[in-house]
Amino acid sequence: MTAELVRGQNHPLPQVRLEIRISAGVPVLAGATLGDENGTLHGPQRVAHPGAPTLPGVEAPRRTAAEHRLAVDLSVVPEAVHRVGVFLALPTGTTGPLRFGAVPAPHITVHGPDGTEIARYTVSGLDTEAALIALELYRRQGAWKIRATGQGYADGLPALLADQGLPEADTLAAAIQATTYPGPTTTYDHGTHREEDAGRDPYDTPAPADVPTLGGPIDYSHPRRPRHTAPPPPAASPVSDGQPVLPVAGDAVGWSLEERLYNQVWGMFEDLSRTTAAYRGAVDFADSRLERELDQALADPRARLGDRNAAAREAARTRRDQLADQARAALDRDLAQLTAESEVVEPALPPAYARWDSPAWHGYRVPTEPPMALRIGDLHLPESLPLRIPLLVRLPLECGLWIDSGATAMPEGSFADSAALRQAAMETAVTLAVRLLAVHPAGEFTVRIIDPAGAGARALWPLTGAGVLAAPPATGAAGVTEVLERLTRRVDLVQMAVRGGAAGSLPDDVGSARQLLIVNDFPHGFDDRAITRLRYLADEGPAVGVHLVLVADRADAAAYGPLLDPLWRSLMRLTPVPDEYVADPWVGHAWTYEPALVPVGSRIVEHVLGEVAKALIKEK
Q1: Three-class DSSP category at 576
Q2: Contact 372, 259 (CB under 8 A)
Q3: E-strand spans in 395-476?
Q4: Residue 409 burial by Cβ neighbours in a 10 Å radius (0-12, 13-18, 19+)
Q5: In the 3-class helix/strand/coil scheme, how is 201-261 assigned residue by residue?
Q6: If we measure between CA atoms, which residue out of 326, 322, 315, 325 comes closest to residue 293?
Q7: Before 232, cis peptide (omega within 30)?
Q8: H/E element holding 544?
Q9: How confident is residue 506, by pLDDT bands cut at 50, 70 and 90?
């Protein structure tokens, strides 16, 4: 499976013979650096470039081009080499672009010798950089890995080489730039490949005869996703054949439309994360520079009260505001692009991915196969409102869910009393169960409920009234014990059947349908034995089709101390009201989560459950 890398992420390399393919959109020069354990280059002989394309284990292209292929054999690189960096640089002395922020984001893929794609990485978020280390192959404890680096240099190739400790980096950079040239054409005669220039790399494609100069920053990109623009104004938008490039639903890479939409939604999430990080970083830089300049202005006691000092402080504040305004303008441009894309993507989402107010639900029919993912809510950042990104999780669920019925930190998430919040938490769990039932074929997903005190009866009415539950909600200590014993037995039997290679010989009362267990008001009604069984289901159940949704306030379980800490850590926390607690894996933003709730007054849940109930009757 291909790994989609983001900046800073690493990935093991299953093979040592590789082909690295680069797509830059405009002519660039490509090469490789061979560094030691610290990444230091010991002389120009450790740099593969168009003037010296072949080094032990590395062969670089011999010219500038928009598309490149580098051949790498890590088994023959010198023992002293521990890092192989793949670099790109814009050619100097041409009419082409001078910074990567003015061209499409470079896209790199790593392939094995049989053509299998191992990893891919798009270097997004570039601006003034004229050269960059796109990715790095590095040796760690005898094995090779790949790291998505994306380290750019505004001062170009000399700064890149100097940063790796190369003496006389300026001289080598000038020599590399001087040896780059457009490659000759390739002719074919009766199927025989004949090179008109003996030095040309046969894997490279010819450079275009006329390369247009591209203008305007392009700060947001995702692997193999077209650049979108938000109308109006089309005049400021990237164009294709003179027309604005408009957003398209399902334009990401993937085999089916569902998979393409899934990848596109996550691409929008990554883009919003990165552009917000760029904005916050720019503002932080502007603030820190202002603070430094004010400290310098106040350092001399004799000049603190003079007009010159006041003018210097005012100039520093003006520079800070200019930087912040430029960063906000770039953020607003990216938000407009993402908003335009969201307006196209949302109506195209299938029921499993769609909001409850989407037209996709009004024409709902029970599917014949389960989806690859499920929408469990929306995410947004303070800077991005009103733009919201769907939160999709892959199916089958890899871990249990915890609907937190405790108090939240956000004022808009507060309720008048805890009873109202508990009711909202149970309604969130029911809505999630309805969605899971609706997106699975009839009979392939069942729901069981433990409600020890019967406190969730009102919230459970949509499920109980439609008759779609596997059994009535279990109440009291006896009901808790019976359901937990049944599901624990199922997990044990399926595990033994799988280990014994007899997965198809399960008892009739076990069944093959996936099971969802909703537990309300935990830990009320649970003794120590029941808690042990619940922890077992949370740990072992997902792998064999038993999933857990826990509706609980962690404060209610404080008496158990650290005993339940592993349980809480194993569950994905959701809240029935907006709350800021979801951290993304790239830059660690605190995203605000909003549950996927049914609009007030809507009868869509009744319609959906009615279709599910009819399909279950036919299945029986």
Answers
A1: coil
A2: yes
A3: 401-404, 445-450
A4: exposed
A5: CCCCCCCCCCCCCCCCCCCCCCCCCCCCCCCCCHHHCCEECCEECCCCCCCCCCCCHHHHH
A6: 315
A7: yes
A8: none
A9: confident
Q: Which helix (H) or strand (E) holds 155?
A: none
Cβ neighbours around 254 below 10 Å, total: 16
Cα 309 from Cα 299, distance rounded (Å) = 10
Do 90 and 177 contact (CB within 8 A), yes or no?
A: no
- In this structure, are residues 406 and 550 in contact, taking their beta carbons and an 8 Å threshold? no
Q: In what order do the strands lie in the sheet with 373-380?
A: 389-394, 373-380, 590-595, 579-583
Please state, in angstroms and rounded to a whole number, the distance separating the CA atoms of residues 402 and 425. 10
Instruction: Output the pLDDT for position 243.
Output: 46
Residues 553-570 have pLDDT tens digits of 999 988 888 888 889 989
Alpha-carbon distance 17 to 504, whole Å? 41
3-state DSSP assignment of residue 533:
helix
Q: What phi and psi values does residue 421 have, to the nearest 5 degrees?
A: -70, -40
Long-range contacts of 353-358 (CB under 8 A, 24+ apart): 353/261, 353/262, 353/265, 353/390, 353/392, 355/390, 355/596, 356/431, 356/596, 356/597, 356/598, 356/599, 356/602, 356/604, 356/605, 357/599, 357/602, 357/604
Contact call for residues 64 and 29 (beta carbons, < 8 A): yes
Side by side, the strands of the sheet bearing 401-404 are 445-450, 514-522, 546-552, 401-404, 572-574
Helix (H, G, I), strand (E, B) or coil at 605: helix
User: pLDDT grade, residue 146 (50/70/90)?
Assistant: very high
Per-residue pLDDT at 562: 83
pLDDT digits 0-9 by tens, 225-269: 444 443 333 333 344 344 444 666 766 555 788 888 998 898 899
Helix (H) or strand (E) holding 417: none
Residue 216: pLDDT over 90: no
Closest C-alpha among 162, 125, 207, 175 to residue 40: 162
φ and ψ of 180, to 5 deg: -80, 140
Give the separation between CA 422 and CA 427, rounded to whole angstroms. Answer: 9
Strands (DSSP E) found in 432-588: 445-450, 514-522, 546-552, 572-574, 579-583
Q: Which amino acid is at 513?
A: A
Peptide bond into 386 cis (omega under 30): yes
Q: What is the mean pLDDT of the chain?
A: 83
What DSSP string describes 260-307? HHHHHHHHHHHHHHHHHHHHHHHHHHHHHHHHHHHHHHTS-GGGTTSH
User: Considering Cα of 97, then 99, then 101, then 103, what sign does the dihedral take?
Assistant: positive
> What distance in Å separates the CA atoms of residue 331 and residue 343, rounded to the nearest whole number?
18
